[in-house]
Amino acid sequence: MDRRHFLKSGSQLALLAAGLRQARADSLPVHSEHAGHAAAATPAGSVPLLPRGERLPALTPLANQSALDGQFVAQLEAAPLPVALWDDARRTTFWAYNASVPGPLIELWEGDEVDIAFSNRLPQPTSVHWHGLPVPPDQDGGPHNTVAPGETRHYRFTLPEGCAGSYWYHPHPHGHTAEQAFRGLAGALLVRSRNDPLRHLPEKLLVLSDLKLDADGQIAANDMADLHDGREGQFVLINGAWQPQITLARGERQRWRLWNATSARIIKLALPAHEVHLVGTDGGLITAPRLIDSITLSPGERAELVVTGRFAAGQPAGLQSQPYERGKRMHAEQEQDETLAEVVEHGVRPTPVLPAQLRDIAALGTPGWRRRIVLSENMGDPRAPFLINGRGYDMNRIDGTGVAGRIEEWEVVADAHMDHPFHVHGTQFQVLARSVDGIWEDEPFLAWRDVVNVPAGQMVRLRFVQALPGLRMYHCHILEHEDQGMMAQIDFLPG
Ligand code: C2O
Ligand code: CU
Ligand code: CU
Asked: Is domain 369-493 in CATH 2.60.40.420, yes or no?
């Protein structure tokens, strides 16, 4: 592996890739809001040696130990990982899958039989949740199925046809999901299709995560503001690197897959100097490309974009995060555009055709059942500050029953002063309509999603089917809210 990749040496490995040791404190910007926070939060005169401005690190693939077609067999381990982020002997202890932050890329094909042996070397119980994938409930690493420290379990599932898309995996032990994820446990999972209309385009994978360091240079614990608003650190990293560089030719078309793996940031992304088409959401391609100016990704959400290099004069060439207000009370709102990645011009290339049609998505029909899901905040009670339908999560209470195979229609309401990104396990849903200032607006296009942001005071109507019976969670994907009770569970009985 070259220096641009995570450096492996025995069980220890330096993450945060490229240029870690070459980075100089004086090369860090002092004008950006992030750097200001970093300087304030870290020991006087010392800033972490995060790689910055280096080439976007590639994700490390998880090796398939099976030679058989249609089979994926691998090992995954969660363990503490000391990393040299400082100019001295200090080590910052992350928690990592296979000693890599973000975790290794799991690349699968529709139809694959998957068997992943997972070992827990953390000091806490954990689990691996396959966010967005239609895996059976007992293989989905929910809070009821944790792996004790020192133990190993296998996750086994078969991927159905038609599920190609950008998924991810992260821990889900109740009360500790946020902590385990923000210490570094999260990785991308791709399901590929053999008839992918965009396979001719070069692909870039961008996993966005949040890093918050304390005054000792360690991963900070959550403070009051984080517990209320959701955690926000000093750095937004992409594939473990800070403000990496992406090369793009004029006229070139690249397919970008983006993951919002932060705890709580709702990130409004834009590439103002370029042409951007939305081509996919959480659960894969949409029916046809849509030209967009920006895309707002809430925590847990993914998108596929086709970026055409234009380098329009007078516009910032990079990947920008634009201000978005999500109703935070204790963190400052972002006021200006910030550059998350530089995009560097690299020659001129012909522009390949973007297919007019990507795939068929059939609209889900008349529901067999309707539910109303109310997300609310209850700040007066520190034991139950975040609620669904008036109750905090209880592992031992089943909040409803459904029937596998039946169409469900849910109206999800944020009766709250903050936005709450809503997630359902084990399936993909279609958003039918969203309210804007109380007025319903039909969703303009069909897409498969598993996270949808419900803005403060607003409502979203969605439909889905759970194909498999069993217990499924639904929750806010601001992980601090989930851990503090904004989660519930429904048992789907065999149809
Ligand atoms: Cu991404 Cu219940 O989780
Ligand atoms: Cu999930
Ligand atoms: Cu929330």
From this structure: yes
**CA distances for 469 relative to 133, 155, 321, 466, angstroms:** 14, 17, 40, 7
423 in contact with ligand 1, CB cutoff 6 A: yes
For residue 168, give the ligand nearest its CA: 1
Q: Which is nearest to 236 in space by CA: 157, 291, 182, 179?
A: 182
Domain boundaries, the chain: 14-192, 203-348, 369-493
CA–centroid distance, 479 to ligand 2, in Å, is 11
pLDDT tens digits for the chain (495 residues)? Answer: 333 233 222 222 233 432 232 233 333 332 233 333 333 334 444 567 777 889 999 999 999 999 999 999 999 999 999 999 888 888 999 999 999 999 999 999 999 999 999 999 999 999 999 999 999 999 999 999 999 999 999 999 999 999 999 999 999 999 999 999 999 999 999 999 999 999 999 999 999 999 999 988 999 999 999 999 999 999 999 999 999 999 999 999 999 999 999 999 999 999 999 999 999 999 999 999 999 999 999 999 999 999 999 999 999 999 999 999 999 999 988 999 999 999 999 999 999 999 999 999 999 999 999 999 999 999 888 889 999 999 999 999 999 999 999 999 999 999 999 999 999 999 999 999 999 998 999 999 999 999 999 999 999 999 999 999 999 999 999 999 999 999 999 999 999
Q: Write down the CATH number for the domain with range 203-348.
A: 2.60.40.420
Q: Which helix (H) or strand (E) holds 94?
A: strand 92-97
DSSP state of 116: E
Structure token pair of residue 186: 């999260």
Q: What's the CATH code, domain 14-192?
A: 2.60.40.420
Say yes or no: do domains 14-192 and 203-348 share a fold: yes
Distance 174 CA to ligand 1 centre (A): 11
